[in-house]
Amino acid sequence: MAERIFTLDDLTGTRSVCGCLACNLSAVFADHLTALRTNYPGTVTTLGHRGASPGTTAVPHFLAVRLGDGLVDVVVWEEMRPHQLTAWLPDTEARARVPQLAARIPRLVRIRQALRAGTFTPSGAAGEALSTGDRYPSFRFLVEHWPTLKKEFTP
């Protein structure tokens, strides 16, 4: 599933004066993620993570935010209960990779930026999925295709 590129005004629902990413965006991201999934269990944080609550898994989501003429990759976190994680990511092996990859956000952002820039195109199913023109792969895409991406991506 492709991610939409947001502007700060889209996220805040206003015509902003300040371009600061920290200005009240946590609530906006929480609203965005709540709209994507029912039974949202917790708060959303930007750029960092406080650790998952007991019985949940911390899942990062990548958003591309247009700031002036450039794009900024923003990481927001969602806590998912086991049934939510299973519904979101049915493949057992991919689900097992979520905590491991959640700890590798800088590398995943570099891969995502290389995919967006067209400087890296993976082979196989991952490359096929990107051939539709989606250059903003989600964390879910990265988890599902991690074995190929890990093997082929060299920064």
From TrEMBL:
<protein>
    <submittedName>
        <fullName>Uncharacterized protein</fullName>
    </submittedName>
</protein>
